[in-house]
């Protein structure tokens, strides 16, 4: 009863552990397993579905208590009891490795793997925070952060499983988005510190690319953080200030001082995670946790002790096999990471059969606005007309002033006077001054007007294309041309990549079969009737049942070297095809971006064109008035000169 309603503190954890231990003691003496004589119905409620699930099996009771122990530790971890994440991971790991996954959907292998990696990820986060506060070396902080990313990537894989998605329902999307946001965020932190290490080593080109990568990853994290609490947004803004400042400073220094080549990110060594947290092991029968065995007198302990010894033999067998599997998996993962070959996108040929959605959207928008190009051209023509009128008015004013000045000089030469004649009209100086001001405005605007026409000419063809038939748009996008040999190279590469995946899947399947076989392997009944001196022989006989599975696994692991050699050879032949495909993809992306940019430039061009028309219409009115004044002033000046000549 106490274990069902535990307090949300470490006392509650202690209660759950005690109860778990006593259930183990009880199970070793009374046949309460599934289908056994002493089995009683055990009912618990599934955490996600809310359904009551009943099994007549004491191990189901143990499994549910373990789940709650992990859940309670995770709650305490959220309350800042920082060691709790590792305790929670330990409980979920023991549950995954020692109990059937068929009891309830929330105890499936995927859900438990999700829980374990979420706990380890958060525990590693705490360690990362401490390392940063302690000012540990940049490279160590980068590796710790990279391991946070690795744990969350594993959690994300579990979340993407179809069974997990259907079980979690709506929260699956929220969790996945949050986990992906954390993946990008901590990848940004890792590359920030790799950039700081490059800075310490005076590798200024590397520093720029690491900070740029950190900035790119942080921007992805910010996109995924929509809807997160203000504390998260504030942390992202702070990180953006730090990384943005670092990047801008590094780029500026490199551009103006160091002039080091900035390497491509994929040419630099990847940051390998440093797992500094682990799932704390669970020992259900630890007397320091369970207290005295309250069933000590019910059954002989000899059978229980022998069963524990056999369990240790099975565990040793599993550890040996898993060490070999993990060593091969690590080699395989590192090899595949270095190859950077994704079976889904090895050729990308399918993308060239369709117009991308972003471009279709622009084409659709222009199809309902057929006058787009005509409106832009007309707007620019009107602007040109007003521009020409203003230029003509200002030229006429300038010509009038120059003519008047010439006449004035003739008069002065004739009369022999250098200074202006007394009584000359004062209006011309003001007209000249105002004309100079308008000419200056016109000259500045003329540059803007020229730039606007250049921009319009740049985008006009693209806008006509987007507004035309889709076949023409598709024809504009570049497509790769592959020879028969190239296609053969691609097919061979994809075949070997499929072989790699098949090898992975078979390995996982054999590992799962081994785990399930070990979990179901209970020889307690045989041990009760076996003499103590015969125990070792019985163990050896019983362990032979695993030999066939071990042979299959050994064959799978041995095949890896040949498969990877074949993949290496295929990849060498693929290099030229890969380069050609990458170049076409780059051109394709550039073309798409250029067309999208032209669409997005339309509104800006129209706005600036209207602003230009407004400016020149106003200037035209002022120039026309000034022209009238210039004419009047010149006439008055001419009349004044005539008076002087008549005297």
From TrEMBL:
Domain of life according to the entry: Eukaryota
Keywords assigned by UniProt, alphabetized: Coiled coil, Cytoplasm, Endosome
Domain named BRO1: residues: 1-332
Main localization of the protein described in the UniProt heading: cytoplasm
UniProt keyword Amino-acid biosynthesis present: no
Pfam families in alphabetical order: ALIX_LYPXL_bnd, BRO1
One Gene Ontology term from the biological process aspect of the record: protein transport to vacuole involved in ubiquitin-dependent protein catabolic process via the multivesicular body sorting pathway
Name of this chain's protein: PTN23 phosphatase
InterPro entries named among the record's database cross-references: ALIX_V_dom, BRO1_dom, BRO1_sf
Family annotation (SMART domains): BRO1
Localization annotation: Cytoplasm; Endosome
Coiled coil start-end: 387-417, 493-520
Signal peptide location: none
An example Gene Ontology CC term for this record: endosome
Naturally occurring in which organism (per UniProt): Leptocoma aspasia
Record PROSITE patterns: BRO1
Cross-referenced CDD domains: V_HD-PTP_like (cd09234)
């Amino acid at each position: 009863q106490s274990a069902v309603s535990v307090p949300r503190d470490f006392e509650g954890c202690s209660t759950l552990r005690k109860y778990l231990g006593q259930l183990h003691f009880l199970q070793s003496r009374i046949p309460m397993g599934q289908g056994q004589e002493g089995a009683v119905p055990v009912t618990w409620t599934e955490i996600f579905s809310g359904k009551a699930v009943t099994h007549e099996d004491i191990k189901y009771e143990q499994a549910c208590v373990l789940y709650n122990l992990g859940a309670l530790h995770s709650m305490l971890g959220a309350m800042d009891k920082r060691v709790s994440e590792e305790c929670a991971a330990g409980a979920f790991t023991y549950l995954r490795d020692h109990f059937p996954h068929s009891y309830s959907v929330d105890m499936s292998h995927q859900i438990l793997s999700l829980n374990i990696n979420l706990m380890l990820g958060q525990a590693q986060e705490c360690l990362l925070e401490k390392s940063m506060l302690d000012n540990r070396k940049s490279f160590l902080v980068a590796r710790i952060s990279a391991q946070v990313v690795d744990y969350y990537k594993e959690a994300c894989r579990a979340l993407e499983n179809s069974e997990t998605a259907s079980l979690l329902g709506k929260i699956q999307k929220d969790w996945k988005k949050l986990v992906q946001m954390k993946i990008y965020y901590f990848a940004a932190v890792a590359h920030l510190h790799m950039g700081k290490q490059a800075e310490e080593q005076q590798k200024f080109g590397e520093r720029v690319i690491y900070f740029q990568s950190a900035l790119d990853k942080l921007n992805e994290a910010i996109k995924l953080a929509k809807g997160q609490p203000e504390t998260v947004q504030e942390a992202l803004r702070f990180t953006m200030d730090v990384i943005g400042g670092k990047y801008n400073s590094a780029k500026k220094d490199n551009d103006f001082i160091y002039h080091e080549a900035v390497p491509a990110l994929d040419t630099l060594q990847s940051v390998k995670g440093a797992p500094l947290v682990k799932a704390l092991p669970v020992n259900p029968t630890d007397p320091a946790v369970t207290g005295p065995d309250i069933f000590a007198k019910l059954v002989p302990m000899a059978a229980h002790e022998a069963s524990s010894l056999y369990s240790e033999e099975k565990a040793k067998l599993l550890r040996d096999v898993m060490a070999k599997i993990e060593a091969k998996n690590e080699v395989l993962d590192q090899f595949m990471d270095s190859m950077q070959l994704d079976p889904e996108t090895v050729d990308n040929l399918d993308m060239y059969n369709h117009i991308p959605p972003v471009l279709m959207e622009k084409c659709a928008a222009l199809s309902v606005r057929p006058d787009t190009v005509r409106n832009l051209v007309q707007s620019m023509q009107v602007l040109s007309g007003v521009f020409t009128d203003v230029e003509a008015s200002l030229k006429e004013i300038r010509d009038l002033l120059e003519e008047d000045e010439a006449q004035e000089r003739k008069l002065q030469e004739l009369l022999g006077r250098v200074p202006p004649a007394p009584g000359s009209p004062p209006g011309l100086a003001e007209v000249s001054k105002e004309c100079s001001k308008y000419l200056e405005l016109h000259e500045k605007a003329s540059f803007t007007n020229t730039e606007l026409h250049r921009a319009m000419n740049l985008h006009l063809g693209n806008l006509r294309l987007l507004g035309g038939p889709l076949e023409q748009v598709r024809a504009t996008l570049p497509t790769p041309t592959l020879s028969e040999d190239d296609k053969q190279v691609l097919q061979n590469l994809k075949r070997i990549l499929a072989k790699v995946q098949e090898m992975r899947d078979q390995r996982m399947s054999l590992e799962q079969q081994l785990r399930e076989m070990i979990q179901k392997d209970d020889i307690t009944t045989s041990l009760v009737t076996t003499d103590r001196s015969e125990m070792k022989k019985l163990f050896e006989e019983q362990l032979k049942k695993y030999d066939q599975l071990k042979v299959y696994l050994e064959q799978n692991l041995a095949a890896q070297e040949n498969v990877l050699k074949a993949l290496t050879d295929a990849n060498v032949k693929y290099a030229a095809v890969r380069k050609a495909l990458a170049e076409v993809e780059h051109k394709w992306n550039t073309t798409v971006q250029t067309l999208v940019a032209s669409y997005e430039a339309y509104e800006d061009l129209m706005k600036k064109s209207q602003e230009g028309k407004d400016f020149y219409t106003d200037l035209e009115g002022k120039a026309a008035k000034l022209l009238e004044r210039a004419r009047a002033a010149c006439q008055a000046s001419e009349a004044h000169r005539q008076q002087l000549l008549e005297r």
